Please model this.
Amino acid sequence: MSSHKQSLFFLHTAVLLFGGTALFAKLIHLPALDITVYRTAIAAFALVIMLGAMRQPVALRSSKDYLIALALGAIVGVHWVTYFAGMQLAGITIGIIAFFSYPILTVMIEPLFHRALPKLKDMISAIAVSVGIYLLIPEATLGNDVTLGIATGVFSALCFALRNILQRQYFNHYGGPQTMFYQTLVASLMLCAFVELPPMAVTQRDIALLFLVAIVFTATPHALFAASLRQLSATTAGLISCLQPLYATILAFILLQERPDIATLIGGMLVVSAAFFETWSVSRQSR
Model:
Protein backbone atom coordinates (compact mmCIF):
# COMPACT_ATOMS: atom_id res chain seq x y z
CA MET A 1 0.00 0.00 0.00
CA SER A 2 1.39 3.42 -0.99
CA SER A 3 1.87 6.09 1.67
CA HIS A 4 -0.92 8.19 0.11
CA LYS A 5 -3.42 5.30 0.17
CA GLN A 6 -2.34 4.42 3.69
CA SER A 7 -2.98 8.01 4.80
CA LEU A 8 -6.43 7.91 3.20
CA PHE A 9 -7.15 4.66 5.04
CA PHE A 10 -6.00 6.25 8.32
CA LEU A 11 -8.21 9.28 7.68
CA HIS A 12 -11.37 7.32 6.82
CA THR A 13 -10.81 5.08 9.83
CA ALA A 14 -10.42 8.12 12.08
CA VAL A 15 -13.62 9.74 10.73
CA LEU A 16 -15.53 6.46 11.13
CA LEU A 17 -14.37 6.18 14.74
CA PHE A 18 -15.24 9.84 15.40
CA GLY A 19 -18.73 9.12 14.07
CA GLY A 20 -18.98 6.06 16.29
CA THR A 21 -18.25 8.15 19.40
CA ALA A 22 -21.82 9.46 19.36
CA LEU A 23 -23.22 5.96 19.92
CA PHE A 24 -21.79 5.85 23.43
CA ALA A 25 -24.16 8.60 24.53
CA LYS A 26 -26.86 5.92 24.31
CA LEU A 27 -24.81 2.79 25.06
CA ILE A 28 -23.29 4.05 28.34
CA HIS A 29 -25.90 4.39 31.08
CA LEU A 30 -24.37 7.45 32.74
CA PRO A 31 -25.08 11.20 32.67
CA ALA A 32 -23.28 13.16 29.93
CA LEU A 33 -20.92 14.83 32.41
CA ASP A 34 -19.89 11.51 33.98
CA ILE A 35 -19.20 10.03 30.53
CA THR A 36 -17.03 13.05 29.71
CA VAL A 37 -15.01 12.89 32.93
CA TYR A 38 -14.26 9.16 32.76
CA ARG A 39 -13.66 9.22 29.00
CA THR A 40 -11.22 12.14 29.15
CA ALA A 41 -9.35 10.72 32.17
CA ILE A 42 -8.80 7.36 30.45
CA ALA A 43 -7.95 9.07 27.14
CA ALA A 44 -5.37 11.31 28.84
CA PHE A 45 -3.71 8.24 30.37
CA ALA A 46 -3.70 6.46 26.99
CA LEU A 47 -2.33 9.53 25.21
CA VAL A 48 0.58 10.00 27.61
CA ILE A 49 1.51 6.34 27.07
CA MET A 50 1.21 6.91 23.31
CA LEU A 51 3.50 9.95 23.51
CA GLY A 52 6.07 7.90 25.39
CA ALA A 53 5.89 5.07 22.85
CA MET A 54 6.28 7.58 19.99
CA ARG A 55 9.16 9.26 21.86
CA GLN A 56 7.44 12.61 21.62
CA PRO A 57 7.76 15.26 24.37
CA VAL A 58 5.01 15.72 26.92
CA ALA A 59 6.14 19.05 28.37
CA LEU A 60 5.16 22.30 26.68
CA ARG A 61 7.65 24.95 25.62
CA SER A 62 6.52 27.91 27.71
CA SER A 63 4.36 28.91 30.66
CA LYS A 64 2.12 30.83 28.24
CA ASP A 65 1.39 27.58 26.38
CA TYR A 66 0.22 25.98 29.63
CA LEU A 67 -2.31 28.81 30.10
CA ILE A 68 -3.52 28.32 26.53
CA ALA A 69 -3.79 24.56 27.11
CA LEU A 70 -5.84 25.26 30.24
CA ALA A 71 -8.29 27.45 28.29
CA LEU A 72 -8.56 24.95 25.44
CA GLY A 73 -9.15 22.09 27.88
CA ALA A 74 -11.94 24.03 29.61
CA ILE A 75 -13.67 24.69 26.27
CA VAL A 76 -13.26 21.04 25.23
CA GLY A 77 -14.77 19.90 28.53
CA VAL A 78 -17.91 21.99 27.96
CA HIS A 79 -18.01 20.85 24.33
CA TRP A 80 -17.95 17.14 25.21
CA VAL A 81 -20.54 17.41 28.00
CA THR A 82 -22.97 19.21 25.69
CA TYR A 83 -22.07 16.84 22.81
CA PHE A 84 -23.13 13.75 24.76
CA ALA A 85 -26.12 15.55 26.32
CA GLY A 86 -27.35 16.56 22.86
CA MET A 87 -27.12 12.96 21.63
CA GLN A 88 -28.94 11.64 24.69
CA LEU A 89 -31.77 14.15 24.27
CA ALA A 90 -32.23 14.28 20.49
CA GLY A 91 -30.88 10.89 19.38
CA ILE A 92 -27.70 10.09 17.49
CA THR A 93 -28.76 11.09 13.98
CA ILE A 94 -30.32 14.46 14.85
CA GLY A 95 -27.65 15.19 17.48
CA ILE A 96 -24.73 14.64 15.09
CA ILE A 97 -26.39 16.79 12.40
CA ALA A 98 -26.90 19.64 14.90
CA PHE A 99 -23.28 19.33 16.00
CA PHE A 100 -22.07 19.39 12.41
CA SER A 101 -23.08 23.04 12.15
CA TYR A 102 -19.57 23.74 13.51
CA PRO A 103 -17.89 24.28 10.08
CA ILE A 104 -20.37 27.07 9.33
CA LEU A 105 -20.03 28.54 12.81
CA THR A 106 -16.26 28.50 12.28
CA VAL A 107 -16.36 30.55 9.07
CA MET A 108 -18.81 32.96 10.71
CA ILE A 109 -16.75 33.46 13.88
CA GLU A 110 -13.17 33.34 12.59
CA PRO A 111 -13.32 36.65 10.64
CA LEU A 112 -14.27 38.42 13.88
CA PHE A 113 -10.83 37.54 15.29
CA HIS A 114 -9.35 39.51 12.37
CA ARG A 115 -11.84 42.40 12.70
CA ALA A 116 -13.57 41.44 9.46
CA LEU A 117 -17.11 40.51 8.50
CA PRO A 118 -18.19 37.11 7.13
CA LYS A 119 -18.38 36.86 3.34
CA LEU A 120 -21.67 36.69 1.46
CA LYS A 121 -21.21 33.02 0.50
CA ASP A 122 -20.64 32.21 4.18
CA MET A 123 -23.86 34.00 5.08
CA ILE A 124 -25.71 31.94 2.44
CA SER A 125 -24.21 28.73 3.87
CA ALA A 126 -25.30 29.85 7.34
CA ILE A 127 -28.86 30.36 6.09
CA ALA A 128 -28.83 26.86 4.53
CA VAL A 129 -27.66 25.38 7.84
CA SER A 130 -30.32 27.34 9.73
CA VAL A 131 -33.02 25.93 7.43
CA GLY A 132 -31.57 22.44 7.89
CA ILE A 133 -31.61 22.79 11.68
CA TYR A 134 -35.16 24.18 11.54
CA LEU A 135 -36.33 21.06 9.69
CA LEU A 136 -35.01 18.94 12.57
CA ILE A 137 -37.00 20.80 15.24
CA PRO A 138 -40.30 19.06 16.12
CA GLU A 139 -41.70 22.06 18.04
CA ALA A 140 -40.32 25.47 18.98
CA THR A 141 -40.06 24.89 22.72
CA LEU A 142 -37.15 23.81 24.88
CA GLY A 143 -39.63 21.68 26.82
CA ASN A 144 -39.31 19.13 24.02
CA ASP A 145 -36.28 16.85 24.48
CA VAL A 146 -35.44 16.80 20.77
CA THR A 147 -35.53 20.60 20.49
CA LEU A 148 -33.45 20.95 23.65
CA GLY A 149 -31.03 18.35 22.29
CA ILE A 150 -30.65 20.29 19.02
CA ALA A 151 -29.98 23.52 20.91
CA THR A 152 -27.43 21.71 23.09
CA GLY A 153 -25.80 20.18 19.99
CA VAL A 154 -25.47 23.58 18.31
CA PHE A 155 -23.94 25.02 21.49
CA SER A 156 -21.50 22.09 21.51
CA ALA A 157 -20.66 22.94 17.89
CA LEU A 158 -20.03 26.56 18.90
CA CYS A 159 -17.58 25.42 21.61
CA PHE A 160 -15.86 23.08 19.14
CA ALA A 161 -15.54 25.84 16.53
CA LEU A 162 -14.09 28.21 19.13
CA ARG A 163 -11.61 25.55 20.28
CA ASN A 164 -10.47 24.94 16.70
CA ILE A 165 -9.99 28.65 15.98
CA LEU A 166 -8.03 29.27 19.19
CA GLN A 167 -5.95 26.13 18.69
CA ARG A 168 -5.11 27.10 15.11
CA GLN A 169 -4.01 30.57 16.19
CA TYR A 170 -2.22 29.89 19.47
CA PHE A 171 -1.43 26.16 19.76
CA ASN A 172 -0.80 24.94 16.21
CA HIS A 173 2.92 24.29 16.83
CA TYR A 174 2.11 21.11 18.81
CA GLY A 175 1.15 17.70 17.40
CA GLY A 176 -2.26 16.06 17.75
CA PRO A 177 -1.50 13.55 20.56
CA GLN A 178 0.31 16.16 22.67
CA THR A 179 -2.48 18.70 22.17
CA MET A 180 -5.21 16.21 23.02
CA PHE A 181 -3.36 14.94 26.09
CA TYR A 182 -3.53 18.36 27.74
CA GLN A 183 -7.09 19.01 26.64
CA THR A 184 -8.41 15.67 27.93
CA LEU A 185 -6.42 16.04 31.16
CA VAL A 186 -7.74 19.55 31.86
CA ALA A 187 -11.31 18.57 30.94
CA SER A 188 -11.30 15.58 33.32
CA LEU A 189 -9.80 17.55 36.22
CA MET A 190 -12.11 20.52 35.67
CA LEU A 191 -15.29 18.44 35.72
CA CYS A 192 -14.44 15.62 38.14
CA ALA A 193 -15.89 17.49 41.14
CA PHE A 194 -19.36 17.35 39.52
CA VAL A 195 -19.50 13.60 38.87
CA GLU A 196 -22.73 12.01 40.08
CA LEU A 197 -21.55 8.39 40.21
CA PRO A 198 -18.11 7.65 41.72
CA PRO A 199 -15.92 5.04 39.96
CA MET A 200 -16.91 2.28 42.41
CA ALA A 201 -20.60 2.77 41.56
CA VAL A 202 -20.12 2.42 37.78
CA THR A 203 -21.08 -1.01 36.43
CA GLN A 204 -18.48 -3.28 34.83
CA ARG A 205 -20.34 -2.99 31.51
CA ASP A 206 -20.13 0.82 31.54
CA ILE A 207 -16.47 0.72 32.62
CA ALA A 208 -15.65 -1.52 29.64
CA LEU A 209 -17.53 0.85 27.30
CA LEU A 210 -15.74 3.86 28.80
CA PHE A 211 -12.36 2.26 28.09
CA LEU A 212 -13.57 1.44 24.58
CA VAL A 213 -14.72 4.99 23.80
CA ALA A 214 -11.63 6.56 25.42
CA ILE A 215 -8.96 4.40 23.78
CA VAL A 216 -10.49 3.14 20.51
CA PHE A 217 -12.82 6.07 19.75
CA THR A 218 -10.83 9.00 21.22
CA ALA A 219 -7.08 8.45 21.50
CA THR A 220 -6.79 6.20 18.41
CA PRO A 221 -8.68 8.37 15.88
CA HIS A 222 -6.82 11.51 16.96
CA ALA A 223 -3.52 9.70 16.43
CA LEU A 224 -4.69 8.36 13.03
CA PHE A 225 -5.98 11.79 12.03
CA ALA A 226 -2.64 13.41 12.91
CA ALA A 227 -0.75 10.66 11.02
CA SER A 228 -2.90 11.14 7.90
CA LEU A 229 -2.00 14.84 7.74
CA ARG A 230 1.63 13.92 7.04
CA GLN A 231 0.63 12.96 3.49
CA LEU A 232 -2.77 14.63 3.01
CA SER A 233 -3.74 18.29 3.08
CA ALA A 234 -5.92 19.76 5.82
CA THR A 235 -8.49 20.46 3.09
CA THR A 236 -8.71 16.78 2.14
CA ALA A 237 -9.09 15.92 5.81
CA GLY A 238 -11.86 18.48 6.17
CA LEU A 239 -13.79 17.23 3.15
CA ILE A 240 -13.61 13.59 4.23
CA SER A 241 -14.61 14.62 7.76
CA CYS A 242 -17.96 15.68 6.25
CA LEU A 243 -18.71 11.94 6.07
CA GLN A 244 -18.87 11.78 9.88
CA PRO A 245 -22.67 12.36 10.11
CA LEU A 246 -23.20 9.69 7.44
CA TYR A 247 -21.07 7.17 9.33
CA ALA A 248 -22.80 8.02 12.62
CA THR A 249 -26.27 7.69 11.04
CA ILE A 250 -25.44 4.29 9.51
CA LEU A 251 -23.98 3.00 12.78
CA ALA A 252 -26.99 4.30 14.74
CA PHE A 253 -29.32 2.55 12.28
CA ILE A 254 -27.43 -0.76 12.50
CA LEU A 255 -26.72 -0.83 16.24
CA LEU A 256 -29.53 1.25 17.78
CA GLN A 257 -32.27 0.91 15.12
CA GLU A 258 -32.60 4.70 14.81
CA ARG A 259 -34.51 5.47 11.60
CA PRO A 260 -34.39 9.10 10.44
CA ASP A 261 -37.54 10.55 8.87
CA ILE A 262 -37.69 12.54 5.62
CA ALA A 263 -37.40 15.95 7.34
CA THR A 264 -34.31 14.78 9.20
CA LEU A 265 -32.70 13.48 5.98
CA ILE A 266 -33.40 16.74 4.12
CA GLY A 267 -32.20 18.86 7.03
CA GLY A 268 -29.10 16.71 7.36
CA MET A 269 -28.33 17.05 3.65
CA LEU A 270 -28.57 20.84 3.90
CA VAL A 271 -26.23 21.01 6.91
CA VAL A 272 -23.65 18.54 5.57
CA SER A 273 -23.75 20.03 2.04
CA ALA A 274 -23.08 23.50 3.44
CA ALA A 275 -20.18 22.12 5.51
CA PHE A 276 -18.80 20.35 2.42
CA PHE A 277 -19.13 23.52 0.31
CA GLU A 278 -17.34 25.68 2.88
CA THR A 279 -14.45 23.23 3.14
CA TRP A 280 -14.17 23.00 -0.66
CA SER A 281 -14.36 26.79 -0.96
CA VAL A 282 -11.50 27.25 1.51
CA SER A 283 -9.42 24.74 -0.49
CA ARG A 284 -9.87 26.80 -3.67
CA GLN A 285 -8.78 29.99 -1.93
CA SER A 286 -5.65 28.35 -0.49
CA ARG A 287 -4.40 27.14 -3.89
Q: What stands out?
A: The CA atoms of residues 165 and 178 lie 18 Å apart. The chain has a mean pLDDT of 84. The chain is about 80% helix and 0% strand.
